[in-house]
Design goal:
There is one protein chain. The protein has strands at 11-15, 19-20, 28-32, 39-42, 54-59, 68-71, 77-83, 99-102, 111-116, 121-127, 133-135. A six-stranded mixed beta sheet has the order 1-3-5-9-10-7, with no helix packed on it. Strands 2-4-6-8-11 form a five-stranded mixed beta sheet, with no helix packed on it. The protein is globular and about 50 Å long. Helices cover 0% and strands 39% of the residues. The mean pLDDT is 90. The chain has 136 residues and is mostly beta strands.
Length: 136
């Protein structure tokens, strides 16, 4: 019997305009560009069936043209925002937020990991410069 190989590559999708994330986008990597200007990515607002959902947003362009908002619909996202200088000032510190913003200061390769436990969303953002990501 021959060897069986599994495709473990991540599903990658480039974004440069508004997009609504689908339940089927779990484990997807979104490559974020704002060459057409600022836009919003809307996350699923009903989380009851999303336990284990995970996706990643990676900044594709160095200093994006406009801010990109990742919108969760309500204050249900908590997380840590690290920058290259060790500043975690834009972390949620126990107070959930509604949005994560990829700022124009972000650099290519900065990223945000997002996951859901079926009740809330959680994120870990890593930026190479201060204020690469903010929350609101």
């Amino acid at each position: 019997m021959g060897r069986v190989f599994f495709n473990t590559r991540k599903n990658v999708q480039a974004l440069d305009a508004a997009y609504t994330v689908l339940e089927s986008d779990s484990n997807k990597v979104f490559m974020m560009s704002s060459t057409g200007g600022a836009y919003q990515v809307t996350m699923p607002t009903t989380v009851a069936n999303l336990e284990g959902f995970h996706c990643k947003f990676i900044v594709l362009e160095d200093t994006p043209t406009g801010d990109i908002t990742i919108a969760f619909g309500s204050a249900i996202v908590d997380g840590v925002n690290d920058d290259g200088q060790g500043n975690v000032a834009n972390s949620t510190a126990g107070t959930a937020v509604s949005n994560i913003l990829i700022e124009a200061a972000a650099k290519q390769g900065d990223f945000i990991d997002v996951m859901c436990d079926g009740t809330s969303w959680y994120f870990h953002a890593v930026g190479s410069v201060d204020q690469a990501f903010t929350t609101s």
